Amino acid sequence: MSTTPALPHASSEKLHLCHAAEVREGHVKGFGPLEGYRRKIIVLRKNGVLHAWLDACPHYSSGTPMAWKTDAYLNGERTHLTCHSHNALFEMDTGKCILGPCLGQKLTRVEIVVDEDGDVYAAAPGEGGLI
Amino acid sequence: MNIIGPDYLVFGVDDVAAAIEYLTAWGLKPVDVTDKGGLFETLDGTGVIIRHKSDPSLPPPLPTSNMLRQQIYGVRSAEDLDAIEAELGKDRRVTRLSNGSIELKDDHGFELKFQVTIRRELDMPAEKINAPGAPAQRGPNEIGVWEDMPALPRTLSHVVLFVPDIDIATKFYCDRLGFVITDVLTGAGPFLRPKANDDHHTLFFIRTPEYMKGCEHLAFHMGGPTELMVAGTRFVKKGYQSFWGPGRHKFGSNWFWYFNSPLGCHFEYDADMDKHDDTWVAREAPNGAEASQIVLFEYREKWSPAGGPPPGAKG
Question: Is residue B199 part of a domain?
Answer without folding.
Answer: yes
